[in-house]
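Residues determine shape. Take a concrete instance:
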Amino acid sequence: MTGQRISSPASTGGAGTFFEQHVAVYWLAQLLVRGIPPILIQTSVAEVHFQTELLGWHTDDFLIVCEGPDAANRKLAGEVKRSFTVSATDEKCKQTIQNFWRDFKNSDQFSPEHDRLVLVTRRGTNTLLEHFVGLLDCARAARDGAEFAHRLATNGFISKKAVKYCGELCEIIAEFEETTVTPADIWPFLRLLYVLSLDLHTSTRQTEAQIRSLLAYTVTEADAPGVADAPWNAPSPLRTLPSPRHAVCAVPSCRRSCNAAMDRSVRMSNASYVPLRITLPPFCVESVRPSGKTYTCNAPHLYRKCSAN
């Protein structure tokens, strides 16, 4: 074995899948407590959808529907990548950016006024967070495409790496559109694209600690940290998303392992609880309505207490 190159355990052991599952739990926890999501901080999480190609999205890892003070819902459509390299020669990057672009161009589903696109990464590198995010922030700071192009062309205004990244994105989108694309052309797209770096499934687990604290705050038991630990470490559907063979805290067998931590959010015995939708790959699951009546549907439901009652 000396001198022989081998694959890393992270690449062969499903680390990307584990990270995506942790991201799923991150969003579900926000749903259960009506949390304020990143980026759309004037809203609260109302619906969580996974594997949303069935709903017509190309950015299909997750879709977060948020409610704000106005009548219009706002959406976060996202891709989850444990690592990400911005390059026109990287197939994963090309597919991700082109999926974002296709959804951005779909006015039937995506509203530039209300909706945003999100790339979720695991503790993004300095290069990604400084230069790529710097490019996106530069787009948001510009008043229009012409000003954005002028900023990029001004020597020293933004890093050369960020300018290079813009060129890579132009090349990726130009290949898809089969035409020449300039920085001014993609300015409206870049200003709606965000990178969300989450410290999940790591040794420090900062994001996980924040979510556990949020869950612990919602319970009344003396051992709040232990109760909040259940959804993360107990073998439950919440830990195995988006497996189509499992439900989501909707059936008694799942609730036995989860409802201590979610007691104030998902208990289903009171008529003042109302459903929140979560869509997963198709499967049937026995759920319980607030009235106690059992029914069968193609998507699991969570229940939360209606604030009006």
User: Anything to note?
Assistant: The chain has a mean pLDDT of 74. Residues 242-305 form one domain. Strands lie at 44-50, 62-67, 74-81, 116-122, 193-198, 273-279, 285-288, 294-297, 301-305.
